[in-house]
Amino acid sequence: MPSEAEKELALAEYYEKIRNARVRLQTEFDKNERKEVDIKNFTALSVIGSGGFGSVYKASTNGQGPYAVKVQKKSFIRKYGLQKEIILERKLMAYMDSPFVMELLSHFKDADNLYLVMPLARYGDLYKMLKRSGAVPEARAVKIIIQVVLALEYCHACSLIHRDLKPHNILIFERGRVKISDFGCCVRSDGQVFGMAGTSLYRAPEMLKGDYYTEAVDWWSLGVIIHQVLLLELPFCGKYDPKPLVISSILNASIRTFKSPNYSETAENLVRSLLEKNQANRLGAIKPGASFVKNHDWFKNVDCTS
Ligand SMILES: Nc1ncnc2c1ncn2[C@@H]1O[C@H](COP(=O)(O)OP(=O)(O)O)[C@@H](O)[C@H]1O
Ligand SMILES: [Mg+2]
């Protein structure tokens, strides 16, 4: 067990790193790196995900791995004019440096595709976990969610808004380790940000209304996720509701309350503070947002440093 002094030191080092994160990311960002790797070196073992741009494979190379290899089709990227987003995603993943953020081990391309090689999350994503095992017991959910809070703390310190936080983009590793992934919708938060991004069910009201927004949209998505993880239900609407109904429920409806032994008053209080429709009053809206979220009672028994 680390002593109190060692814990204090670890915490001080952690905050120093967070303070330097944006500067470091900015410096590293413009470097032009090139990796001499080829998809022919990889053996695909199975498909583990498919998204808009292509598929994600479990694959090994030269007896090493398995890794996750995300294949992005160039034709798709060209068709939808997503070149800028794809380059940003790759660069961010290459240079972000947090245990709670998915890193890039390598990347390369051929005539048809771009390839991103990542560590493999053996337990898949949080969405699959919910489908497989049902609601997450609250004590375990706290340990998962605090890591998402730390990931957002890091992203926001780098002046980045994730904009597509949802269970599908939260990956589960051994020993309950969690990383957020999928930076294809990420945007720099300097100045006022506009524009629709991410997935309707997790979008904050200000984004849906076309207003300017801030990092607080990620805290909203986190509120939706906590509700879903504990109750297997979305807070405002059904998963299969038509889009106009989803939007009007997020904008106008109050949170559907459920009585469940897996939904303590403290959890409900946190969810309500994050799902505050007025972004100015939302928990996390005032900088440094993550500190306010971490200080909520729901997290009082978890160690925020490890
Ligand atoms: N490193 C990984 N380890 C395990 N599964 C992954 C990994 N990366 C992605 N996946 C799976 O593939 C899915 C799609 O990947 P993602 O990067 O989110 O692509 P998209 O931009 O298409 O949503 C994820 O929801 C997850 O199920
Ligand atoms: Mg995704």
From TrEMBL:
Gene3D superfamilies, per database record: Phosphorylase Kinase, domain 1, Transferase(Phosphotransferase) domain 1
Keyword Kinase set for record: yes
PROSITE patterns in alphabetical order: PROTEIN_KINASE_ATP (PS00107), PROTEIN_KINASE_DOM (PS50011), PROTEIN_KINASE_ST (PS00108)
Keyword ATP-binding (UniProt): yes
SMART domains, A to Z: S_TKc (SM00220)
Entries under SUPFAM superfamilies matching the protein: Protein kinase-like (PK-like)
Matches recorded under PANTHER family: CYCLIC NUCLEOTIDE-DEPENDENT PROTEIN KINASE, PROTEIN KINASE DOMAIN-CONTAINING PROTEIN
Protein name according to UniProt: Spermatozoon-associated protein kinase-like
Species the sequence originates in: Galendromus occidentalis
Residues annotated as binding ATP: 79
Family as reported in the entry's similarity comment: Belongs to the protein kinase superfamily.
Protein kinase domain: residues covered: 42-299
Record-linked Pfam families: Pkinase
